[in-house]
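re: ur question from yesterday

yeah so i grabbed the chain u mentioned. its 464 aa long if i counted rite. heres the sequnce exactly as i have it in my notes:
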Amino acid sequence: MPTLSEYYESTESLLEYSKRINEYKPDKVHLERQSRFRKTLREKIDRIFSKEERKNIDLRIGDNWGVVGGIVEHHGILDHPLLLSVSLVSNFYKLLGKKKYGDVLVFATGNIPLNEPFRRRGFMLNGKKFNLYPKLYKNKVVYGLGKYDFDIKQKIIEAHEWHLLSQEEQVFLAKINDIVKSIDFSTCETIGDQITKINYYLWPYLFEEKIRAQSANLISIEYDDVVIDYLINVISNEQNNHIYKMLFDKNFQDIILNEFEGKQGAWDKESDIGTHFFWALDNKNERIRLVLKDDTLVGENFKVQLSPEAIIEKLKERKILPGMLLKFSLIVFYMGMKPLMGFSLEYMTRLKAKMIEVLEKHFPEEAERSKSIPYDNMNLISICKGKDDKGNLKDLHAFDIFYKGGFTETYLKNLNKIPFKEFMVPALLFAYNYAISKYGKPEDKKTFDVSEDELQKPFYKLFK
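ran it thru and got these structure tokens back, copy pasting raw so excuse formatting
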């Protein structure tokens, strides 16, 4: 993946890197277009958190804030080291700088099933996996799903797994369970809202007790409904832009369908991958792939006319939600959000190039604006390091870090002494396998005589 090459050469520290990627002065038109998004975002945060809770939250979402947001994070309870690191790396300069920089705001998508690969219905602790959701829930997507009973201890007992825990682990999980059960969920409408509050209350335990007071809070927002509100507003009030035209103008719609056919992040008709503009949600809150036939989006036991009125109605009913290409076209190529990416940087760079190519022919001013959006911000590296019982270095899950008492101030300072490029090394095998699965052929895959432990060697100095 050539777009990653510059990151294997970066000598920036995590503090320098994170501060730089959050600096953004968008085009004036983009800044104005972002105003509704900022307003809806603030309203959602105010709804989820009580007045008393908000006294301890310092998010600086001013009218001149150019929207910067991740497109990597999946909305779920803190767990996987890579997704956990997305929030930590992107905001490293804030972690111990709450007073100067405010709290951490993260955008996370709810357009993922509860059994998504990074969490698999639950969480990990000391190499053991525990389910929070029953198998029946595995294909339900987070977006729009109703509130849930997060009694962690009871879930483990019902699964007959409590006895697998040591006494220390039982005491630890009982404490975590008490924290979660004490949260006021009366302000929450969905499971996504609950996850936001759970993460807010668990996040401080990523840091050792003596530095928790100065550490920034985490506000991890499932932002699909914010995006949908924005889309409804665009459809209702602005009929001459490329978003409206790609959905409802037959000529431009055909151009988009043809130009993005087979593209990673869009749709592939032959392989039944992706969806045309929207995903549908059935009565189980499971996704249905849609294909445009004439003027109707059709899926299994579902269809909706591709008209402004019908689409707005289904969006409000939470029966459809934007697919990847439509979502990014809206919030990046129209609204001008600066995206923080993982290995998705590769296909997002390709989508950007193709979108600009299309816009240059039909919306040249929009093409120029899209060119101005920075893409030099990859944040999918793991900084959640720790040793196992055998002394080998490994990536820690969130509950492992909680269990060990949190990151020490010394550890965080030592992380900042390591150049960004060294954090890329352990991801070499992951990046290669990802690239082969997305852009290569299985028969061309090579094997390498190197272990993950060997790739972790630069980080052993953190624990001397």
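noticed a couple things. Residues 75 and 108 are 5 Å apart (CA to CA). also The chain has 20 helices and 16 strands.
anyway ttyl
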